[in-house]
Specification:
three-stranded mixed beta sheet, alpha/beta, 5 strands, Rossmann fold, 116 residues, two-stranded parallel sheet
Length: 116
């Protein structure tokens, strides 16, 4: 949802930071975006754009968790996941506490990596 809510060119920023990353998204996150996209207003637009980008640029992964934040956390524990992109402060803190590097917004529309 960052591209709409924060005017971030998300995949360009990820390419700048990581030089062609492989992106994955939990199915529960896609389900949450679908629910939000069914609404109206800026949040629905942001969710719709996020959903389209996720389908175009990410691989979908199943997790055992049913709540989106928990599924992101679960996926972050996988051996092939190095970074998580989120602006959600509680999730970011939880990931950093679990020694997972987090990519989040810094400044107006740039991303940066925060190490645990």
């Amino acid at each position: 949802m960052m591209p709409v809510e924060c005017n971030v060119r998300l995949f360009e920023e990820l390419d700048r930071l990581l030089d062609g990353p492989t992106c994955v998204v939990p199915e529960t996150v896609l389900a949450e975006l679908e629910k939000l996209a069914d609404g109206s207003g800026k949040e629905a637009t942001a969710a719709s754009v996020g959903l389209d980008l996720a389908h175009e640029r990410c691989t979908t992964r199943e997790t055992e968790a049913t709540y989106a934040d928990d599924s992101v956390y679960e996926l972050a524990q996988a051996d092939d996941v190095t970074y998580v992109v989120t602006n959600d402060r509680p999730l970011r803190n939880r990931l950093l506490d679990a020694d997972t590097s987090v990519i989040c917004l810094r400044g107006r529309n740039k991303l940066s990596i925060t190490q645990p």
